[in-house]
Amino acid sequence: MTRTLAPLALVAAALLAASCSSHATPAPAVTYPDKDRAAAAQALLSGPDWYRHAVFYEVDVRSFQDSNGDGIGDLKGLTSRLDELKSLGIDALWLMPIMPTPFVDSGYDVADYEDVSPDYGALGDLDALLAAAHPRGMRVMPDLALTPPPDQHAWFRHPRPPTTSAHADWYIWSDTPSDPNIGCGTFSAQFGSSAWQLDATRNQYYFHRFYAGQPDLNYRNPAVVKATLDVARFWLDRGVDGFRCDVIGLLVESATGCDMIPETQDYIRQLRAVLDSYPNRAMVAESTNYSSAAAYFGNGKDMFHMAFNFDYGYFWSMPFSGTLASAVEKPFLDSQKLNPQGAQDALVIGSHDVGRAYDAARGIQSRWERAAFVQMTMPGTPYVYYGEELALQSGSTAVVDTRDYARTPMVWAKADPNHGFTTGSKPWIPFGANADQTSLEGEKGDPSSTYSYYEQLLAIRRGREAFGTGSLQVLTVDDPSIALWVRASSDETYVMAMSMDEEDAHSGTAQGANLPGDAELLFGSATLTRSGADAHVSVPAAGYAIFRVR
Ligand code: NOJ
Ligand code: CA
What is the pLDDT of residues 243-302, one digit of tens each? Predict the structure, then answer.
């Protein structure tokens, strides 16, 4: 059965746009005055702040690389591609759910928290992935979906029908399709019209925020808290480097609130304490508050290491369809203002939920490139969605729901009928549009490709502390379509210039910019000169550049 999900109207709009012609920018002029930052990168990536300096990559294991010809990507396949990711400049992987699942919610419905889905291999294949990734300096963070396990989970099957069984209070039951202590409906109407489902065996209703087959766990029961923290320990003991925590703000409900209520925050603190009992682990939150993820950071040290800044990640296409620099700067200034010290944004421009950057950019190359430019140079840890570095385009087949349009197989080879993804007769879902034009084989080594653009941009970020942990200063230019921002660490300062106008070149002055030195162009094309305390900047249409000024 397939479903249509409302927020994916974005995807639909994007699909319409997919027919738009692309607006290619000239290959960026790149000079690397000190390209070899390997030693600096290694130092930054091995310390406790590694996750602030790393570039993450979100992998849909199912669609990345099939190793056994069944048409389904798997852990062995992913392991065989680590060197490709390393050579792109990827330091860490976020794996979409790999646990056994009825696949009603694409694996976010976990049927067994302590195993690997047979579709993707076995626990030993995860061990092998970790054993291959770690010596390469790469880290691995699986998705941990603690919120809505499916009704096939053993915990749910046990309490039915006896209400006296060990798991009787592990879910939220009511004699009526309501509960005065739960003042929230479904997470969103897409997942069903009611948040209550009658269980005929127990003759009671259970509460669910998502699909009816995903009963919510009762986190007010200490046994549930203990069991789920044990799940985290199980994976940490196996050597994972942390977790991406799915909709964790929705763990506990009350009569007046359902999102990040104090009880949920207490749970997150306990989860953080578990992570802190292992060295160098980190976790990232999927925030359900799209305008600010500040609540997920607690005091900056006791909750999440990172949380997605969706104000940029989900909505960047809006400022990029206008010409105002301030609109693109706002999400970063807001998070600087609202987040506690120590917080680190996680930055995306596409994902398994929001869709492909290509589509959000309406097929305009200079637009997704500048969106990625902001993602890599503003404060935060970038998460590249697999295939984004090739500008993969959406498909049109929905196996579970329309979000599958952005979950199509990775395109490795140009010509092969299955593009190097599988040796079987066909992949589990058809390739996205124009796959033959978006292969790694075709793009690697082509200086005008999206792949080369990503490769260069990631190389610039690598080993430069200012991008991971440096301060941010946004400079005001007297031309409102030029964005100009400064990232500084204790010993280096970089300035980024970017034009929001895709038609005409622009020039302007940032008064009182007080740049600490003359500008040396590292990436892109623009000019930046000093005149006393002021800085003059000229940027071509849809241009961008990185300068070092100290
Ligand atoms: C968040 C995940 O990102 C999304 O894909 C999933 O559908 C929901 N959680 C519900 O499980
Ligand atoms: Ca397979």
Answer: 999 999 999 999 888 899 999 999 999 999 999 999 999 999 999 999 999 999 999 999
Tokens 């997919």 sit on residue: 18
Centroid of ligand 2 to alpha carbon of 284 (angstroms):
28
10 vs 84 pLDDT, higher one = 84
Q: Report the pocket of ligand 1 as residue ranges, CB < 6 Å.
A: 105, 108, 145, 148, 210, 246-247, 286, 352-353
Distance (angstroms) between ligand 2 centre and the Cα of 148 equals 26
Phi-psi region of 107 (alpha: psi -120 to 50; beta: other; left: phi over 0): left
What are the E-state strand segments in 386-438? none
Please write the tens of the pLDDT for every residue from 107-141: 999 999 999 999 999 999 999 999 999 999 999 99
CATH class of 51-148+224-461: alpha beta
Q: Which residues surround ligand 2, an ion (CB under 5 A)?
A: 66, 68, 70, 72, 74
Q: How many CB atoms lie within 10 A of CB 441?
A: 14
Query: Which part of the chain is CATH 2.60.40.1180?
Result: 8-35+467-548
- For 8-35+467-548, the fitting CATH number among 3.40.980.10, 2.60.40.1180, 3.40.50.1260, 3.90.10.10 is 2.60.40.1180
